[in-house]
Amino acid sequence: MSVLPDxxxxxxxxxxxxxxxxFAVPAPRVFYPALGIILAVVVIAIAFPVRTGSxxxxxxxxxxxGLGPYYVIIVAAFVVFAIWMGLSRFGDIKLGKDDDxxxxxxxxxxxxxxxxxxxxxxxxxxxxxxxxxxxxxxxxVDGDSAELASAAMSQTFLHWGFHAWAIYAVVGLSxxxxxxxKGRPVSIRWALEPLLGTRRxxxxxxxxxxxxxxxxxxxxxxxxxxxxxxxxxxxxxxxxVVGDVTNTLLVILIVVITIIAxxxxxxxxxxxxxxxxxxxxxxxxxxxxxxxxxxPTMYLLRLLVQSIGGYFQDVVGLTFATSxxxxxxxxxxxxxxxxxxxxxxxxxxxxxxxxxxxxxxxRTVRQFIAGVLLVPTFVTFVWFAVMGGSAIRQAWEGDGGxxxxxxxxxxxxxxxFNLLGSLPxxxxxxxxxxxxxxxxxxxSADSGSLVIDMLASGGDTNPPKWSRIMxxxxxxxxxxxxxxAGGLGALQTGAILTSIPVSIVMIGMCIATYxxxxxxxxxxxxxxxxxxxxxxxxxxxxxVTEHLEENFDEHFGDQVDDRISAALxxxxxxxxxxxxxxxxRKQPPQV
Length: 591
Prior knowledge:
This protein folds into two domains: 28-526, Amino acid/polyamine transporter I (Up-down Bundle), CATH 1.20.1740; 530-583, no CATH class. It has 22 helices and no strands. It has helices at 28-47, 49-87, 106-117, 120-125, 128-135, 145-160, 162-181, 188-191, 193-196, 198-202, 204-238, 247-267, 270-294, 297-319, 327-336, 338-358, 365-396, 412-421, 426-456, 465-484, 488-569, 571-583. The longest helix has 82 residues, at 488-569.
């Protein structure tokens, strides 16, 4: 994840611009409740990891069994809403003032959207997820190897494609309109102003909305950090730097990398981190290109094209799949994969939404939706086709292709390094992969803490450093707590549980966005009608005047001459004329 653009003063904030005390809390009604909830989770999970893991597993089962269809329907609704917004009559409304031009050029904007699409998750699951679906198919999916490979790619594209980015687009569009068009602070609550009204937004309900967004975002960030540290440890173990991966090693790595991320805040090297993030995107692109060129290049390109076609062929059925015919095995699979992803994307949405909103000033609604849905989705498809396609190709050759032990099963964090090790320059590529993951970890923690801090500060885009350090540290602590409480399963459950209230807020954001854009569109339509009417009247008047000037004698010449002759020859009219001239104290004309 790329870091956010340089912060600017808060727009539309109703707080006075007085000097801030060093450790003052700008929004205590949001800051302290969010902090209390997160600390409670951390303390309980670290103090009672086994019991916490059991409770989380139980809660995940309840959520999947009871709310699985809810996640399916709500994410499908977000996809439909996002596409409709882009194609609707609202598409020409600008996310900014009418005379605002886009802050970034089209290629720079695409590059930053690409940056938003890249992250720890893609590196972690890029090779292992399609491979897992190929070797251990989803319950109810069967067929020969070719059919299983096609189904694996379609399912992966579902999890990482339009659905994920539609979730981000819903939040990003609502925030971009609120921030750039209406001049409101960078805060989730203000995106709901058209629905709730200013009084409720400023009141307790608005505070609760921001608390929900903070907790959800922090757990989303912690999930990414937890996945990233597992893969960093696996890479170091593969390279022989460390021995077996243990919880102690994971905790040490989280602490070290979190310290590096917070040090960037303290030392004020934000520009350096941004530069490092851009370099990291180049390294990720180099890694992708190396796997493509050093592997079965033409096969991977054919797989990309065919997988995109298979995805569009299967997407509707996959979108609404609820494992209704596959019993408990299907529900378990649904909870561990699709429901987890929908929960992760929803809890991560405030973070990504703020990012894409901040870089989209001056874009129209249609440009925003098209860019957010198409660019990152295509990049994601390419990444999974190359990484996942390479893994499937090797596994197809038999005995796991050296990527995993058929008896022990797939270990997701190890698959990438086993894949890279099978290619020329495998050690170099593995070192590059570890560096890429570590930098994604650092930039995600740094940017995540900034977004959370802005939300906790009432929309202040330049929050105090001490609170940003605190939120970055809490992100690391939550990742540690969840890993100790159950590893990947606990990370998944944390994302799923925190996404439930966030999803309700997102439904409100959809309604608020529609109300705001509908009202503005009506104003624009009335203004356009008035302008067209005025323009039509002006043109008609000009045409009539021009025609009369050119053809006056033709239309009225004879009538005027007759009237003049009649007036000159009628004595009574002449007497009346004399009287009028006397009243005007002028000499009458001689008749």
